[in-house]
Amino acid sequence: MSKAWFEAARAIGDIDIVGVVDLAKERAEARIEEFALASAIASDNLSDILARTNPDLLFDIVVPAARHATVAAGLEAGCHVLSEKPMAETMDEASDLVRRANAAGRIHAVVQNRRYLAQIRRIRQLIASGAIGDVTSLHCDFFLGPHFGGFREEMRHVLFLDMAIHTFDAARFLAGETANAVYAREWEPGNSWYSQGSSAAAIFEFINGAIFTYRGSWCADGMRTSWESAWRIVGSKGTIVWDGHDDIRAEAVTSGKDGLFSGVAAVEIPPLDASHRIGGHLGVMQDFIASTRGGPAPETAGIENIKSLAMVFGAIHSAETGRRIEITI
């Protein structure tokens, strides 16, 4: 993932990379050479490089097991920290990072790059306009069959833990609400090449009464959905459907009825307002840096992103126990 981060930093243009850390120092040296970072220092020791360079920002792209220690070290050194997802390996660790960032007076934000896709922004803009009324339910399907090899095929709760955070965060963004309960199931089809949790379904309840349903599989061959899922968003006055690619459609209720059904008409999907930040990693990084320079808090700040992480762990807890789980943060 580091290449995407270096490319985003280069695109922004006014960031000086002063150090690059990797447990294998030669990999840090290779990135420095690849991106012509002549003044950057390569190291295999984070504490040492933080002390030597005294940076303003720390970009955390480590494996999840190392996240808590990495972010804690950055905050202690006085850095604002931008992390890859997931925010933490456990809710206790996530809560601790929120506490540490608050105590340090620093920003810790998380890369939820999917919510910075132009189409998701357009849908959120349409919902906010009131075109379909209040959101009453969201439904999405995610069906792919990738043969990753490596750790994903061995990890438990692979779909919920490694991928669904993107979809859950998008649902929370589109609904403009926080989930407070979930019922979930996981299963392993006979054709699965994963160890556990490749197929799953979940029903989330939001605080305002809206429902979000998720159906997914990482061992579903044929008729693939987008990596962003296929969506149906139902409102009190109409519906939006999105194929996860470029096709967004909407209909809203008009006056009168057509037999059994209310009359509806197509709703124009307006272009994205220029005030909306897009660009995946680039968009997240731009918002994060603007915040460190006195701008508004990034929408993926830890204190907000922990609400999406709680949906993941709530779903896993429900799948393990077979019970409806209340989500608390």
Written account of the structure:
There is one protein chain. This protein is of the alpha/beta class. It has two domains: 2-111, NAD(P)-binding Rossmann-like Domain (Rossmann fold, 3-Layer(aba) Sandwich), CATH 3.40.50.720; 114-275 and 305-326, Dihydrodipicolinate Reductase, domain 2, CATH 3.30.360.10. It is built from nine helices and 14 strands. The protein has helices spanning 2-12, 25-34, 46-53, 67-76, 91-104, 118-128, 158-175, 281-292, 302-321, and strands at 19-21, 41-43, 57-60, 80-83, 108-110, 135-143, 179-187, 199-206, 211-217, 230-235, 238-242, 248-258, 261-266, 325-326. The strands form three sheets. Strands 13-12-11-10-6-9-8-7-14 form a nine-stranded mixed beta sheet, covered by helices on one side. The chain has a three-stranded parallel beta sheet with strand order 3-4-5, with helices on both faces. Strands 1-2 form a two-stranded parallel ribbon. β12 and β13 form a beta hairpin. One of its GO terms (molecular function) is nucleotide binding. InterPro entries: Gfo/Idh/MocA-like_OxRdtase_N, Gfo/Idh/MocA_oxidoreduct, GFO_IDH_MocA-like_dom, NAD(P)-bd_dom_sf. Pfam families: GFO_IDH_MocA, GFO_IDH_MocA_C3.
